[in-house]
Amino acid sequence: MPDGSNVLDTDSEALVGPNAILQLKNPMDVLLGHGVLAQVLDLCRVTMPSGDRMISQSEVGRVHHMLWQLFPDRAEAVSVAAGQGTARYIRANRIPRIARIALRLAPRAWAEKRLMHAIEDHAWTFCGSGALGAHIEDGDLHFLIRDNPLADPRAHPPHLCHWHAAVFAELFTRVVGRPYTCREISCCAMGADVCHFVVSRAGGTSMTGGKV
C-alpha cells in the first residue's frame, strides 16, 4: 500500500486515491455505454484523474452520487465492479510481492489480522477525512468509518456504500486467497453515526484450489 507522504497538506481538502474514479470506467463502459463516465465527470465539473496523485474527496463524492442520481437501477452493479477493480489494483501495485506470498501461506486468522491493520494504517486512501476503526468479533472483521465523506445523507436517491463494501470483500479475497463477503450494517448516508462494514469468511474453494 502507498505511504502517507502525499496524503494532503494541512490547508487543503482531504484526498482519496484516484482509483475511486478510475475504476468506474470499465464497468460504466460495459453497463452504461462508452463515454458515459466522461459525461458524468463533465456534469460534476471533475477532471479525469491521471492516476499518479491523490484526488479531492468531494469530487469523488459528487461523481459517485451523480452515478446514483442518473442510473439508480445500475449504480450498485457499477459500484461493486469498481470496488473490486480498486481492490485488485491495490493488491497488484501497493502490496509488496513478498508480503502477498507471506499472507497467502500464513495461518488464515493471522493473515486476516495483518491485513486489517494494514487497512487501518492506510485508511486515508479511501476514507479521506473520515476516521476508521477496526476490530475482530466472533471471527468477523469489523470496519467502522465515522464521518465517511463518500456517504452523503443529502444524496438522492439515498444509497449504501457498495463501493467500500466491494473493496473490503475483494481485498481480503485476493490477498488472503480465500472467499470473503462484506455487508454494510449501518450507513452515515442513512442517518447512522458510522458506516459499519462486516467482512465474513464465505464458503467455497480457495483461490489456490483447496477447500476453505
Description:
The protein has 212 residues and is an alpha+beta fold. It is 45% helix and 16% strand. It is built from 9 helices and 6 strands, in the order βαααβαααααββαββ. It has a 4-stranded antiparallel β-sheet, covered by helices on one side. Strands 1-2 form a two-stranded antiparallel ribbon. β3 (131-137) and β4 form a beta hairpin. α2 packs antiparallel against α5. Mean pLDDT is 91; it is low at 1-11 and 208-212.
| Overall pLDDT metric | 91
As residue ranges, the low-confidence spans are: 1-11, 208-212
The best one-word shape is globular
Note the gap between the termini. 26 Å
Tell me the number of helical segments per DSSP (H or I, 4 or more residues long): 9
**DSSP strand content:** 15-25%
In helices, the fraction of residues equals 40-55%
Instruction: Give the structural class.
Output: alpha+beta
The tally of beta strands, per DSSP, is 6
Radius of gyration: 17 Å
Strand order of the largest sheet: 3-4-6-5
The biggest sheet, with number of strands, parallel, antiparallel or mixed sense and barrel status, is:
4 strands, antiparallel
Helix-strand topology string: EHHHEHHHHHEEHEE
Structure summary:
This protein is α+β, with helices and mostly antiparallel strands. The protein is 45% helix and 16% strand. The chain has 9 helices and 6 strands.
Keywords, please?
16% strand, 212 residues, single chain, disordered N terminus, alpha+beta, globular, disordered C terminus, two-stranded antiparallel ribbon, four-stranded antiparallel beta sheet
Per-chain topology:
Layout: E1 15-16, H1 19-22, H2 25-31, H3 36-44, E2 55-56, H4 57-70, H5 75-94, H6 97-105, H7 108-121, H8 124-127, E3 131-137, E4 140-146, H9 162-176, E5 180-186, E6 194-201
Antiparallel strand pairs: 1-2, 3-4, 4-6, 5-6
Helix pairs in contact: 2-5, 3-4, 5-9, 6-7
